[in-house]
Specification:
Keywords: DNA-binding. The chain is mostly helical. The protein is built from five helices and no strands. α2 crosses α3.
Length: about 100
């Protein structure tokens, strides 16, 4: 399924390169945003700029990026729980071996 950003960019008949020129956002970052491969969401200024150029409601576009942030936090929580369990287990093993 095409991302919201990519759909609206194509609808406006803009290439990633042209959107980059219009926004000052690098083409590679636009590509990562479209494919949800970005590490950090764009700034509020960038979201407003993209929304204006692509004629997307700013709140809808913000929600698109917030969903990615939620996914990241969810994965981080899972990772942290697993890391804590592993560290706790390793600590207990070492503690038991000291005796």
């Amino acid at each position: 399924m095409e991302s919201l950003l990519k759909y609206h960019r194509k609808k406006k008949k803009l290439t990633q390169r042209r959107l980059s020129e219009l926004t000052g956002i690098s083409q590679s970052y636009i590509s990562r945003m479209e494919n949800k491969k970005f590490k950090h969401s764009p700034t509020l200024t960038q979201i407003i700029l993209l929304a204006d150029i692509l004629e997307i409601d700013q709140l809808i576009l913000s929600e698109f990026f917030l969903e990615k942030e939620r996914e990241h936090l969810k994965n981080t929580k899972k990772y942290n729980k697993k890391a804590v369990k592993t560290l706790s287990r390793d600590f207990l093993k070492e503690y038991k071996n000291k005796d």
